């Protein structure tokens, strides 16, 4: 890619401890320089002066710490390479962002991705003559994985993926989406694939056009063309605005509609009710380019959302976040699209940076 990005290094805890030590030293030095207070002085006034002085000292220390942190920036040259054996662990880490705590053989899946090289892109730090283990860390992964290439000898990780997809669809998707996944599994013609598009959170989107263009170019050379593509997106949905209580239930479906009955609802009607509530909520995509998929007119797609906050460790950057006074809970969106929508998505993403 040849793009240079900056990444902070150094332990935050060490910086905080150094700041505290400097503050203590400055306080001691200041006290030694100060003359003994007069007996007539007001204790409350002295306390206020000490507090003001401490605040000023703390600000000075903060400024010094910020300057020191600026000097602790390192330039990394991120480049795109086809998947290789050295990337196995990094690819697994990327896949865990898609499949949170899922019972899927991700190591075998990573090996399957590597076996398809040169198809696919792994974003890594540019190599030099002194390569270390950190050089092989994956910062992004973009590729496709065939889901139904060999019906008689299906790899275990493919079986695992379908079990995962069907379980999620059974809990939160309309019946037609569940049946669609079953049809893909049974086809065995190699015309369905999983699109994997993962990057570290908040990674610069400057890399997207070149990555999408590379994937689109690869697909034109495939003997067997994809007709159906499944894509699992990462997104966050705001609480409130009709979505209260929906975060623990089913997700949003593009084919769902709010129920008209006000009496006791069946499972299908409950799913549609939750879908309608989520559809009116604010949504933020972890990958900014993902929203474009639903603005396109070419082809067709269906999708549903499912909550994953129970699968994320509390305090994780992928857990619930608060923005402008609103809480955004983590979800995944399972999209099933045809080849026309997928090609239009890749084409749009390759034309320019989407923010």
TrEMBL record:
Residues 1-10 have a biased composition (Basic residues). Residues 34-70 have a biased composition (Acidic residues). It comes from the Eukaryota. InterPro entries: BCP1_family. GO terms for cellular component: nucleus. Residues 1-70, 241-268 are annotated as: Disordered. Residues 11-33 have a biased composition (Basic and acidic residues). PANTHER family: BRCA2 AND CDKN1A INTERACTING PROTEIN, BRCA2 AND CDKN1A-INTERACTING PROTEIN. Belongs to the BCP1 family. This is Protein BCCIP homolog. The lineage of its organism: Eukaryota, Metazoa, Ecdysozoa, Nematoda, Chromadorea.
């Amino acid at each position: 890619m040849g793009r240079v990005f900056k990444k902070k290094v150094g332990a935050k805890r060490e910086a905080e401890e150094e700041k505290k030590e400097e503050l203590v030293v400055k306080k001691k030095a200041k006290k030694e320089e100060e003359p003994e207070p007069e007996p007539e002085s007001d204790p409350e006034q002295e306390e206020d002066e000490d507090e003001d002085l401490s605040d000023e000292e703390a600000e000075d220390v903060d400024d010094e710490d910020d300057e020191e942190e600026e000097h602790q920036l390192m330039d990394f040259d991120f480049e795109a390479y086809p998947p290789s054996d050295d990337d196995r662990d990094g690819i697994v880490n990327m896949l865990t962002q898609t499949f949170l705590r899922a019972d899927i053989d991700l190591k075998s899946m990573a090996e399957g991705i590597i076996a398809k090289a040169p198809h696919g892109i792994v974003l890594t730090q540019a190599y030099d003559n002194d390569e270390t283990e950190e050089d092989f860390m994956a910062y992004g992964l973009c590729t496709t994985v065939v889901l139904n290439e060999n019906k008689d000898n299906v790899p275990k990780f493919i079986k695992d993926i379908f079990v995962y997809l069907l379980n999620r669809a059974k809990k939160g998707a309309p019946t037609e989406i569940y049946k669609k996944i079953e049809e893909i599994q049974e086809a065995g013609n190699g015309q369905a694939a999983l699109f994997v598009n993962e990057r570290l959170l908040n990674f610069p989107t400057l890399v997207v056009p070149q990555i999408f263009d590379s994937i689109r170019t690869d697909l034109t050379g495939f003997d067997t063309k994809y007709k159906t593509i499944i894509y699992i997106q990462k997104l966050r949905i705001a609480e409130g605005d009709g979505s209260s209580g929906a975060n623990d239930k089913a997700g949003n479906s593009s084919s769902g509609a709010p129920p008209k009955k006000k009496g006791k609802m069946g499972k299908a009607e409950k799913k549609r009710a939750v879908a309608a509530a989520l559809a009116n909520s604010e949504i933020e995509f972890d990958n900014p380019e993902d929203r474009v998929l639903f603005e396109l007119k070419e082809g067709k797609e269906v999708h549903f959302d499912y909550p994953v906050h129970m699968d994320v460790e509390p305090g994780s950057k992928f857990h619930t976040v608060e923005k402008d006074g609103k809480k955004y809970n983590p979800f995944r969106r399972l999209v099933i699209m045809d080849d026309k929508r997928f090609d239009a998505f890749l084409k749009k993403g390759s034309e320019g940076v989407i923010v």
